[in-house]
Amino acid sequence: HTAPAKGSKLGWDRYREAARMAVHAMLAHRMRTFLTMLGIIIGIAAVVSVVALGQGARAKVINDINAMGTNTIDIFPGKDWGDEKAASIQTLNERDLDALLGQPYLEGASPQIATSGQLRYRNKTSTGNVVGVGSDFFRVKGMTLTQGRLFDERDIQSRTAVAVVDGKTIESLLGKEDPVGQVVLVGTLPVRIIGVVAQETGFGRSSQSVSIWLPYSAVMSRLISQNHFSQITIRVKDGIQPALAEQAAVALLTQRHGVKDFFTFSSDSIIKSVEKTTATMTLLVSAIAVISLIVGGVGVMNIMLVSVVERTREIGIRIAVGARQSDILQQFLIEAVMVSLLGGLLGIGLALLIGFVFSLFVESFQMSFSLFSILMAFGCSSLIGILFGYLPARNAARLDPVEALARE
Questions:
Q1: Where are the domains of the chain?
Q2: DSSP label at 9?
Q3: CB 329 within 8 A of CB 392
Q4: Coil vs helix vs strand at 184
Q5: Which of 41, 63, 94, 325 lies 20 to 30 Å (CA to CA) from residue 350?
Q6: The pTM of the whole model exceeds 0.70
Q7: How far from 337 is each of 152, 331, 395, CA to CA, in Å?
Q8: Which ranges constitute the DSSP H helices of 144-241?
Q9: What is the pLDDT of residue 86?
Q10: Per-residue pLDDT tens for 228-276?
């Protein structure tokens, strides 16, 4: 059993010697080594940064959609967006709302009747969105109360002229005054503010719009005389698939109306399309970054080929004193892999530094680095070293010692 052990020890020694020679050659030509690495460093940094940027952007958009009201489904009259007949369809009503509220798969449902109106407080006027909603609206939309209270069923039943506002409305109308208890004129209707919700920001919202929410019953009877809703928003219970809940709600309303004269729009469908788009974008930009990696690999190969020509005499001496072809191949291959791996490490470091600098200047979202993309980048740099280092290493190993020594 000693022969194989001795053989493996000898093999390991040769490998170690090849690695030592490779390190020595790299240190002897530091500038050349660094320039060889530069292509790899830039390529790896580009790949890792692009993937992190794509992941971060995707997470940001999905968070914004979730903040808009996760698992929400909006039901609108008409066949689809832009349907000219939508305005004449008056089938979404209180009876539909009651039917939806009785469904076990829904957490809540709220109608919306939107109109724009002039808001007046003392000598200040502003045009804003006046939205009639149900008591479930703020819970369905995931909005948080910061002051006062929200509507309850009593306000809806008695058609009370009360309102909930957000920060933007307070800023433009009330200034520094405590909003709760103040009376604002909405058109000609005096409305008392009973609560304040946190200002909505994020996906699909204008931070400039002034909004005031009233009980839908008050809007329907005291502001605009209509007995149907502009839309109904429902929130699916956690743990229930939004697609199944959407199907059930569509079936329920179609059965009630006798015809499908409405269409639905869910946050789930936006999330899916966003994920698809960001995946495509990441793939596209990663492909561009991979091209820069290939350019880096060609750079490694070129420098290594030049290195073989430069070190012809050294290779000739090594072969003359007993080095085998495999030793020369090993040394040059190890050198190429080391250059690529070191370039990979520096590239990952550069990407993390870019992420840190990015976080200092951009507050809206962060680059999201994943272990998978870092390991992939590291694997790429190793592969480049092996693929592009093999040809120069093979050329070096095949040199004829007599010719090599004769060449000056």
A1: 2-64+273-406, 90-260
A2: H
A3: no
A4: strand
A5: 63
A6: no
A7: 70, 10, 16
A8: 153-157, 167-169, 216-218
A9: 65
A10: 888 888 888 877 887 888 889 889 888 888 888 888 887 777 777 777 8
